[in-house]
Structures
1.
Amino acid sequence: MSPALNVHTADDSAERLEALAAVSQRLLDRCRAAGATQAEVSCSEDAGLSVNVRMGEVETVESTRDRGIGVTVYFGKRRGTASTADLREESLAATVDQACAIARFTEDDEASGLADAELMARPGPDGRFPEFDAWHPWALDADAAVDLALACEAGGRDADPRIENSDGASVSTTRGLSVYANSHGFIGAERSSHHSIGCALIAGAGDRMQREGWYSVALAADDLESPIAIGRRAAERTLARLDPRPVPTGSYPVLFQAEVARSLIGHLLGAVSGGALYRRASFLLDSVGTQLFPEWFGIFERPFLERGFQSSAYDAEGVATREAPLVEGGVLQRYVLGSYSARKLGLQTTGNAGGVHNLEIPANAGGLDELLRGMDRGLLVTGLMGQGVNAVTGDYSRGASGFWVEGGEIRHAVDGITIAGNLKEMFATIEAVGSDIDPRSHVRSGSILLGRMTVAGDD
């Protein structure tokens, strides 16, 4: 049994990927010998370190090491899945036997099976797939991580005497290896890293207390904001939340700041995903080719971005990914499908088993200040609460916090309000997308200005 991946040792990731690939091949051989007509195997190893501090004291230090092996077999149209974390040969054999036993007792499902063989991604001349600069392990020990977290929190607490309390600061680093293989002969190996530093602070007291924070995430530690800068940004955001005032109920322009604007794109993705569509639980049934957004609006999938959070040459089924518009000219161009949902809908996979691979929403406006001036009077939303979105009808109602804008300038903080509309109408009334892209997500969007929404205030 090979040792678990360790964030504090020399980089042996290439050798470990080869070992996982060999395990995958042995499992596929066992599935074939057991009579499976098709099979697929996924193997992963992850390791990480995370620390949390609060009010200058260490609260938690956690080191994690995980392994997972999943085996799926198909006997015709019957499917069985089993998993293990044990690499001993007897455990691998038992996992295959269990998957086969499950498959023999399931009903036929005409949509089941591997993705079509001709759609598999092909490696380069060296037999490897590109990595897109996603592997940057951080040799961070617990003491150093604690020092970074303490510096982050201190940077925020020391910024202003009105910062009287803290919800703490955190530092985390993870790195992972994964192999996917199937009986079409496909085998793909990937490695990636992910790091973050964050801080949340509290200002005021009693019912006037306000909490805000800031964080930075990156695939490479060198791309993170400095801990002190993160703490100071958290302090600025917290202080700006003090002394919120009510706003009158009415219909106003609403500007979603970049970090919450991507939630609108998330609602679109949920509605055009294969699972929602074949279950007929989407407000965008039969909408491909429909004008949903203004003519200038677009959303483009970019799976090959260097240091992209979701860059990959293949999806979770080994299907080759490709650059393609999701929305172009305001028109929905396609759904987001894996092979199973595609078959249920009588369509072909779009290479999105496991999700989308980096979305870009081009800007048609400048930064946040320009958008505020263009809005003139309305609501800037910086935080959302609740899950008040009806996936079937598109009706939207969520708690919100942010700032009231008059004359193109922020006047005061607001909270305890509700914003409401219908997603179809909201998409159609987008007036601008800013250039202030939030880089902390695979959905790369600036702030989004909507022409009008219902805002329920304190009155």
2.
Amino acid sequence: MANIRKLASGKWQARVHKDGKLVSIGTFRTSKEAKIEAAKVEERIYYGQTLNDRNMLFKEVVNDWLEHKKANVKESTFVQLEVIIRNHILPTFGDKKIMTIKRIEIKRWIATFGELNENGKEKYSFGSRLKYLSVMKSILHYAVHELEVLEKNPADKLKVPVKDSVALKKEKVKYFSLEELNQLLDFMKAYKHQRFPDYQLYYTLMLFLSKTGLRISEALALRWEDINGDKITIDKQTSRDDNNNVKLTTLKNSSSYRTIKIDNDLVRELKKFKMKQNELLLGNPRFRKNEDSIIFQNFNGHYLTPSTIRETMQDYCKKAGVDYKGTHGFRHTHAVLLLESGASLKYVSNRLGHKTIKTTADTYLDVTEKIEEDELQKFASYTKR
């Protein structure tokens, strides 16, 4: 039988018998609340379920959660989770008891990331705040359903404010127009590298990215054996460890594993590039072969690093008189040009390796809306009386 008593503070304490001892399960505003909670706990004891550990710290739950995640996510994802927790979650909640964390605290915490800095811009992007809240929800969900130290998830159904999601939709993806892309590629085709003038590594890489829509990490992992005629198989990607050593890892999700066709122009350019690469490997001792036979190797035989690619492409764009759009800009460019040429959303989604067609539609919302409007105008003109 539960023991309910009124404290000097005016609150009511509930205690239950466990292993021959009276164990406190907390204090409550009214006697009724204390009795209801005590009845729940006694039921858990009767059925041999775990009692809530009211002294368990949030950081202890996090450590347990991380061990669980380590066995179930990719290494690169695990590293991202660790960074989010270390920098953005533990400073606020780490030393708090898991049972004392309230919903209002979590709302205030996520709101701080949307505050404006001295430049009048939000401290963190909407996408970053979504990630932080998602990780927090996952930790608390684990505490409820796996550790059973919480009755309910205080972050359940919490959302980043709607006004922020509206602002997010107004953000436009960066891509090259067809004119800009051609201007950049024309410059790159005529550009001569000082050490190896005829080894057009960056021209071929830019052309390839704009013609395939591959993520840069997918392109850098490609080997010559992954190309069969006019088809390319994508089944791995590159990443870097803390010491900047290259690693080949699995892809983002199951939809990322795909085989795509490429057009005849790209097939010809790749053949020319391979011939030049082989010619240098055979005739120039300073040009070394990559042990994995990757396509986009540098003259030392190494994988290209993302930071070097960004800096180099930024410089080439400046010289070509074209605004730099980022390495992901070539992926966006491929998708936009496909949609503008009349390709279906489903085809574009499959080609990019998106998990759902909704991802494609949401990403290229402005483009698809413009295309729909143009198509509707055609229909209106055709049926006009």
3.
Amino acid sequence: MDSSLPLASHKPRSLAQGVVNYVAELIRDSRIAPGEKVPSEAEIIRALGVSRSVVREAMSHMQAAGMVETRQGKGTFVLDRTPHTMGLALKHNMSKEDVLSLLELRIMLETEAAGLAATRRSDAQLQRIRACLDTFLAHCDKPGNTAADDTQLHLAIAQATNNPYLLDVLTHIHKEQLPLARQASAHIPRDAPEVYIARVRQEHEDIVGTIARQDPESARAAMRTHLSNSRERLRRAHELHEAGRR
């Protein structure tokens, strides 16, 4: 574990939840690996400026959630909570049905994530979302793949939910599952690039705009529209490709 722990960047809505988010971020950033000890009470108190009772409440929440376990006389250790344990095992040979099912899952999860982000996002998190959008839009005007920029934008929105479990699942989907889904559909002809880019630019701008306005219902609608459109575009492309092979 890295002993130089970062200070909290902004005041959490709940002190105990702030400690949970803090430890979860250390785990996600690989500052603490499964099997290693979490920071001591004294280290967390020093980093976050909270009381000992708040730290203990947070540790109780994390134990109940299966994030950590306390070993008598030894300390508190990170458990191996990989996405595989949540039923998200990788499928390396994705079918068309797998790819469309993954988009359905994203619609369910990311629609709510957008609504939560609109409600809970901090100013710093909004700045991060906008920076990711700017990078995405800048790369839309250049030849090349915008998948990495799209991933960063969607994960910045997920992070603004301040729900470490939702971020955990969406990080796995975007970084592990989506590359396989894109690979499985890479041979399918799509709309002309300029048509596709114009659509996704507007859809992403709509999502970020609603989060900036802190309008959760419009944020949910914008994200659902974007991902539903993505699913429909992909479904049609597969159907046209299959029809052309007959």
4.
Amino acid sequence: MGAREEILARIGRAVAGADEVDVPRRYRTTQQVDDLVGLFAERVDDYRAIVHVLPASEVPGRIEESVAGRRMIVPDGFERDGGWGDLDTADGVITGCAVAVAETGTIVLDHGPGQGTRAQTLVPDYHLCVVRADQIVAGAPEAIARLDPSRPLTWISGPSATSDIELNRVEGVHGPRTLEVIIST
């Protein structure tokens, strides 16, 4: 018997015959946030992303300005005519999202229509994501409740970044170096 098994056997003997205890779980599943859009924009900005909060009527013009001169991947189902980049030649990708979390500034892709594949959202150096105000929830429990656990999920909290042992920040290691978010109100 190894050390692990010995420890587990001791624990088993110690609790043998003990009463079952019902441990109440009082997890917070909702929270009140007065300004979801404002909090989400603030948190996304904290991650060094570029953030625009615009009326829906101004979103197409902002998209055109943001992608001007870039070869972009436009996934099937995104509400924009035509894509003109592929994984080998694209400068960036433009997507929607499944849900966004105000508390953490996190965008969640489930790679449904208009969200592209994981490769399309992780390989290019630039990601432009359009988030509708009605897709923003206060916290992670609410976001999880909206998601289908059988779909592939990508959780994005700012541009890709990592730090080495000396805490030198390096961006673009595991995904796009630049994240631009348009919040459509």
